[in-house]
Structure to design on (208 residues):
């Protein structure tokens, strides 16, 4: 290659694209393994199971979860209202039946007093209708992942799983973008696992 041609090839500006999202998506089996760790009827088990179901079934951010109040839940319509989310936006989301079932279980224990939906639990199982700290959610998921004997995970991994599973199920990207409250569909597309799944499948046609 002549020097002039070589120089032109290295002078091209780097093409800007979408980067791989941080974290990971959980498999269905991993989620089932985590749920299996909630094998009791303690206040912690009942609350944390409901928290997991909302994160997985609604794709909420961690701050959105801890800011939820009782008034934001409409059981009849399987509905959650997210107030003052990222960028001071609000939105309405809907939950799958399993998540709604776990929320109802939690409310039977919590009661219907106004205040934060997911509240603190003190020693002895005593509830206080006060806001949970976001780090409590992180610690809870770390603990449950360890009990389930899977790789550690966080709330953003469940959000990534939520988006990826909907896209894999054939839900259009604009709908998933709205459900996840992404500013751009490019962000939503970064969670799409279908391309890698196809690549993984086609290479199995190669034989030795």
């Amino acid at each position: 290659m002549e020097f002039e041609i070589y120089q032109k090839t290295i002078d091209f500006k780097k093409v800007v694209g979408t980067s791989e999202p941080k974290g990971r998506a959980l498999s269905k089996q991993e989620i089932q393994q985590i749920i299996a760790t909630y094998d009791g009827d303690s206040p912690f088990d009942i609350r944390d199971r409901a928290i997991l179901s909302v994160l997985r079934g609604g794709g909420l951010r961690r701050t959105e979860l801890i800011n939820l109040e009782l008034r934001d839940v409409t059981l009849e319509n399987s509905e959650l209202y997210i107030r003052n989310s990222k960028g001071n936006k609000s939105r309405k989301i809907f939950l799958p039946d399993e998540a709604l079932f776990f929320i109802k279980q939690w409310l039977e224990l919590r009661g219907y007093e106004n205040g934060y939906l997911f509240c603190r639990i003190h020693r002895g199982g005593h509830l206080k209708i006060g806001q949970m700290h976001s780090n409590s959610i992180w610690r809870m998921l770390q603990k449950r992942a360890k009990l389930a004997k899977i790789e550690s995970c966080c709330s953003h991994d469940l959000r990534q799983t939520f988006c990826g599973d909907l896209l894999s199920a054939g839900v259009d990207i604009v709908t998933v973008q709205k459900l996840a409250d992404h500013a751009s569909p490019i962000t939503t597309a970064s969670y799409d696992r279908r391309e890698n799944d196809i690549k993984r499948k086609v290479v199995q046609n190669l034989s030795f």
Observations:
- Confidence is low (pLDDT under 50) at residues 1-17.
